[in-house]
Amino acid sequence: MKAATVLRLRFKYITEETMSKESKRAVIITGSHFQDEEYIYPYYRLLEDGFELDVAIKDKVVVYGKYGVPAKPTIDTKDLKESNYDLVILPGGHEAPDRVRQDSHVLNFVREMAEKKKVVAAICHGPWIMISAKIVKGRKITGYAAIKDDLINAGADYVESGVVVDDQFVTSPHYKNNGDFMREVLKKFN
C-alpha cells in the first residue's frame, strides 16, 4: 500500500474516531487584529486533543491577527448556540475583544455558556467580553494588566497570576502563559 493511501486511511480513522457523538465541541470567537499567539496556540491544542472546533467571526469574514495570521470562520457569530458547544475560547489582542464585545449575539452566547456551567476561557483582553456579558461579578479572574481596573469595576476578584481557574472559568493574562492556560482548559475535559 502506498504511503499516501496509508496516511489518508489513518486520517479518516482519526477523524471518525474524534468526531463521534461523544466528541467535545469548542468555538474560538475572535475579530480583526487578534493576538496571533492567543488564537493559533489554542486552535491547534484543541485539535490535538480531539475537539470538534469552530471559529466564529461576525459576518463570517476572514480576519487577520496583529502579525498577519488569518482566522477563517466556520460560523457567523449570529448563529452561535450554547447547546452546540462545551467550551468557548476568547483570545486577546486589545482590538479584537473590543470589537467582539459589541456583538450582542456573542454576549448572549457567552452568558448562556456561563449559565449552563460550560467552560469559558479567556486570555489577555479576552475577559473584556466576559465583562460585557456580565458574568464576572464575584468571580476570580485574571487578564492583561491594562484591564485590571475594568475587571475590578465589574465586580470581579482580580488575581495577579499566570492562570486563574474559578469553577468553569479559566483566564490568563498573556500569551507567554499559553501553555498553562491551555493545560487548565484541557483539564476540564480529561
Name the CATH superfamily assignment: Class I glutamine amidotransferase (GATase) domain
Which geometry do the CA atoms define?
globular
Number of strands: 11
Average predicted confidence as pLDDT: 92
Helical stretch tally: 7
Q: CATH class, please?
A: Alpha Beta
Whole-number total of structural domains: 1
Instruction: Tell me the strand order in the biggest sheet.
Output: 5-2-1-6-7-11-10
Following the backbone from N to C, one meets helices and strands in this order, namely: HEHEEEEEHHEHEHEEEH
CATH architecture: 3-Layer(aba) Sandwich
As an assembly, this protein is: single chain
Structural class of the helices, strands and pairings? alpha/beta
Which radius of gyration do the C-alpha atoms yield?
17 Å
Unreliable parts: 1-21
Task: Estimate what percentage of residues fall within beta strands.
Answer: 15-25%
Largest sheet entry: 7 strands, mixed
Helix content: 25-40%
Q: Which fold name fills CATH's third level, the topology?
A: Rossmann fold
Cα distance spanning the termini: 35 Å
